Records
---
Amino acid sequence: MYLLDIKYTPLTATLGALIIGIGTEFTILIMERFYEERRKGRNSREAIMITNRKTGKAILASAFTTIGGFSALLISDFVILSNFGLMTLINISLALFSSIAVMPAILIILDRFVKIRHVGENELPVK
């Protein structure tokens, strides 16, 4: 924000919660698809390739739709709104990058240490 000369306002203060929500959605989608492919018996590299090929499209579409919607704020004459739009675009782009590029690498590394266990219906805590 300092580099772009954007002032901290109550509107930009809410941005953290918004980006955490969006980024969490992206990472949960990737993580769940990865573990689904691992449960099917695929190795971690195959599972991440299938995950990126199938779920990656949905995440990209979701991110670009959100970026497109918030980019409308950039043309606002109200400086607070245009700054909020710019910061949202930057943060969603970073969340997208971390979900598509960083999260798969983390999953492959953690796959060496975490054993996947299939939970049957009888073992679920809620029925």
---
Amino acid sequence: MKRRLCFCLLALQCLAGSAFAADALQKNKSESNSVKVETLMKTTQSWDGVDYGPYPTGRPELSILKIEIPPNTTLPWHTHPMPNAAYVVRGSLTVETQSGQKLMLSEGDTLPETVDTVHRGTSGSEAVELIVFYAGVKGQPLNGPGH
């Protein structure tokens, strides 16, 4: 009888220990599945240091574009009439203003674009993939010609 009681107590202790370990494992697993937030960019200025002005009036229109630029390609000079931001998914890109300011970007970098400043981008030896978010108003073009 004593032997049976010892066995039952030992089994109970093992089960309790297993339950505790399983609970700890589940807790650790749920922590690894938790939502993670990383701010990639938060700014009131474009990359060249110019403060963003007020938004134009009108109904907001948001656009998100995936842009792929072939290797060794220089885009034409252009402008953007509204704030926009780019995320470099892959490749490298050099952005330059017509006045000669340059910024080099690579995979994982963000770009707070210029507004109403003539600029262009040039890809490196690999294709560039960008995700670009535009915050404009309904009917407003996303870009305009360089001057």
---
Amino acid sequence: KKLFVFGGFHDNNASYRYFNDLYAFSLESYSWTKIETSVAPPARSGCCMVATGDGKILVWGGYSKTTVKKEVDRGTTHTDMYALVSNDKGDAKAPAGSTSYKWVSVKASGKKPAPRSGMAVAMAQNGKAYAFGGVMDTEEDEEDVRGLFSSELHVLDTAATTWRKVEVGAKARKPEKGNSKPNQDEPEPESAKVVSDDGIFTMTVGGASSGPSSTAKSGTNDLDLGGPSPRMNAAIVVCKGQLYVYGGLFETGSRQYTLSDLYSLDLHKLDAWKTLIANSLNSSEWLGSDSEGESSSDENDDDDDDDDD
């Protein structure tokens, strides 16, 4: 019984370093061991890492950056995949009774996620890994980097290493025969109540929001199925056929938001996301410093006032 840790980065504002080393933590002796391999994936952070049912560990995606010239860095979003497997031939230099490992490049097929880092991943008992969210650099020059955040959900069949995009509510978007009109008898929003019907969480939540995210768009079959907003570094887990997504980070301009909302998705039905704790960003007050743009605007206003004098 071991816990494996791979990669990561360290940044002290003066210098940074990305890692591709591998460590194992014994859950029996509570001790760390550095695992040496002849080759390893390129250094990175923010990658996905899952243990499969046949004893392999898959690593894919992630982000790293290198120095192009003085005070100028270039980021790389990785798209490769590797598997850590037991080395059947063994290592003559390894201590007796220990297991040696090697990295093997893996070519995944199917509809792969777009290049991104900070995806959250969780394994289900059927050998499928669900990956959610993440961020990809979409605009970069020597002074400006912007990211495109995702709310997509993909699933990887770890046995066949095949990707598939999960379409939530695909059946709900198709009108039933003889009933092409939208349902006009929608119930009124309910008041606060206790939610405990999935056997995992028991909590008191408010009624449905009256905003556009809680209702179907009238006159169309394009239903709003709710769900988590785009984000990176969320916490996700699969339990009893339900996928839970909690929190994460989102950036807009120079501001970074820490999320605390919670959602669930029935992986058998895939009909719609269920909001367990709603996103409260709209009612939050920003307590950080203003952006440079806002500061510049204020300075221009002051200059105009001086001109008037």
---
Amino acid sequence: MPSVRSLSTRVDACATLPSRRGRSPSDDTQGLDLHELFSAFPNLEDLSVSINRLRGGCIVGRFPSDTEISTLKLSDDEVFPPIRALSLSGYWVYSEEQVWAEKFPWKQLRSLSLGPQDNLRFLEQATGRVQSLTEFEITSPKVRVKASEAIELDNFVSSFHTLETLTAKGMVPPLDAVAHHPNLRRLCLHVIENTKVKRQNLDAKQIGDLDQHCPGLISLEIDLDPDGSGTWPYESIESIAKGFKNLRQLSIHVALGIAQIRDLPDEKEDLASALTKTTAEDFERRFFKHRRSSSVLEVITLKTGESLRWFPHWRPKYARVERKCAKTVKIYPPVRSGDEPLVDEGESYSTR
């Protein structure tokens, strides 16, 4: 099918045939063979491959899987399709390293999305080979990232300088790596809230450095957490407000404070107080005190909750409370001089 340009495929590496579960036999074995896909669709430009390797719920251990995932092998005359956009989740390179290193069209790759499941050894292969990548997204449900993984991500993002969109959730590159991309237009840096220690936010100086290195940002999403008494880091808010002259959308993820209150009996009330109309209005006052009236800013979004969180066996109590306390508040700048900003509490889990 040479006319097909876009393809998405998903398989479950944990799947078993119905006969193994005591029901009638079936021949519908799942499988993934990229060689067959490339032969059938030689002109693919957009490819998405998702392999589910996680077994959630209350199941501990693994059943034998009937899913067949074939190792990619290409002869000397065979090549990858002319892929320009690649999305991978749960794809392990391992024995395919040489094939990807030598035959994948790295130079023409424009968009790369990895996650939320690990793509072992892939970033290592991509480092130093991409030259024209403009969009990169990496997502992970991890709250603690291995040092080797952090170094691998740092090395990759630092190895080129062409990104216009960078989305990093769960695994976040350091600012020194982000600074290699002065043409960034859209940036998201989000760390999943840890249940044991308070996550680190960008401070005022780091925010100022980000503005200096990436002055063309029109969309910015970062974490910014009030302290235990509900007080915002005002210097950081001021740094955002005074910088980023081209910014149109600002999104702030607010921690619920799980590490501090998850063992208390009134945890739901404490979590719900992390983002209220009062705290949103306090943010709005501090921000627009330092923002120019001629700003092109369209909306500020403050939000709590975590859509990426995943548990291998069972959900702890705080996860249910965290979900119920998820909330989004939008702040719209004044339309005319003399007007007040509009604070819209929007939807919370309890109002859906």
